[in-house]
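Thread: quick sanity check before group meeting

JM: Hey all, I'm pulling together slides for Thursday and realized we never actually wrote out the predicted structure for the chain we discussed last week. Dropping the sequence here so it's in one place. If anyone has concerns about the input, flag it before I start.
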Amino acid sequence: MQPELVDTGTLQRDCEALLFVAAESLSIKQLAKLTGAEESAVSVALQKIDQEFAHRGIVLREIAGGYRFASNPAAREAVEAYLLPPKTNLSPAALETLAIVAYTQPCTKGEIEEIRGVSADSVIATLVDRRFLVESGRKDTPGRPMLYKTTPEFLEAFGLNRLDDLPHVDLDATAPVELVLPIPTLSASARGRSGSHQAAEPSDPADPTDPTPEETEPQPSAV
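JM (edit): ok, ran it. Output follows.
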């Protein structure tokens, strides 16, 4: 067997072990440093791991700027049945807050509350406790409020490699938003009634051709 193939097999074994024990994703640069191999050789080893594990219960994922082992999406139901307690589910308020931070980070609690219109104290505390958000210094404004940003755990939880992978949102905050109401406004109705009154001509009470109330036959009402 050629020495380079032996080396590649050893490197692949070491990379598999590191990816298995690592609590976070490992970059090619980190794997090369830990194994003492060239980055190009690590890339080849990762490609082989990816191919060999593609249809197993454990697969190789490129996520959060690096690589790590993860459960195969095809086994999701079985894994969720074992791992996911009720606490794992994020409330709509938490997801909304997380989305605001993801797209505007770093941002302050006040900026989040200005967008949501409600207090964000408990939601931010929950997201920090779940390690989806982390403090990121203080804003250079009066009061120096705390800034928050997302974490690598956020990227992993939502299957993102980097923040640039977030869905694009084309939102121009400076552009006015025009809402088309399905019903006329009060002023429009008033103007309509006023115009109708101006257009109507009063009938001549002395006109003998006008029917009297007794002569007027009742008309069926429209249903």
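AS: nice. The domain at 86-165 is CATH 1.10.10.10 (Arc Repressor Mutant, subunit A). Residues 22 and 190 are 71 Å apart (CA to CA).
JM: adding both to the slides.
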